[in-house]
């Protein structure tokens, strides 16, 4: 298996609880963890006809699109394809600039997981709310060797000793 270099997330009930616009438990910490692993982050989400600006009122107040590489935010309302169409996943992998096998898609939806795998992406499922915990998913993927090791904090030696 190739090392993962880009991680895409669904929005609703994967990163954000759709019912109340709160973060899924562990989501913010997981995004920070993945960034510490030098991974590019993206979104693949069905948004109806909404653009990211129109989605902002439906997201947590502290949701920051800047966490994600702009070219890796693939919203159905902006690209004209919806999951589970393979085309939206191909669009994401093409935008990533890395082979599909080096892209990971995380969602709570089984069908979307299977279609992402069909186009060559790695895929991981999180339990839907109220049982979701993205942090646990990231920890399990790291333990399984799917994700690269985190970089040490700036100003520290790789061994952790100063």
- Oligomer state equals single chain
Low-confidence segments: none
The string of secondary-structure elements, in order, is EEEHEHEHHEHEH
Radius of gyration: 15 Å
Arrangement of strands in the largest sheet = 5-4-1-6-7
Helix content: 25-40%
End-to-end CA span: 34 Å
- Coarse shape: globular
Q: Structural class given helices, strands, pairing?
A: alpha/beta
Mean pLDDT over the residues: 91
Tell me what you see in this structure:
The chain is of the alpha/beta class. Helices cover 30% and strands 16% of the residues. The protein has helices at residues 27-36, 52-55, 76-79, 86-96, 110-118, 134-143; strands at residues 6-9, 16-17, 22-23, 40-45, 73-75, 103-107, 122-125. Strands 5-4-1-6-7 form a 5-stranded parallel beta sheet. Helix 5 (110-118) links the parallel strand 6 (103-107) and strand 7 (122-125). The radius of gyration is 15 Å and the shape is globular.
Keywords:
five-stranded parallel sheet; 162 residues; 16% strand; single chain; alpha/beta
Topology:
Blueprint: E1 6-9, E2 16-17, E3 22-23, H1 27-36, E4 40-45, H2 52-55, E5 73-75, H3 76-79, H4 86-96, E6 103-107, H5 110-118, E7 122-125, H6 134-143
In short:
The chain is of the alpha/beta class and 162 residues long. The chain contains six helices and seven strands. The strands form two sheets. It has a five-stranded parallel sheet. Strands 2-3 form a two-stranded antiparallel ribbon.
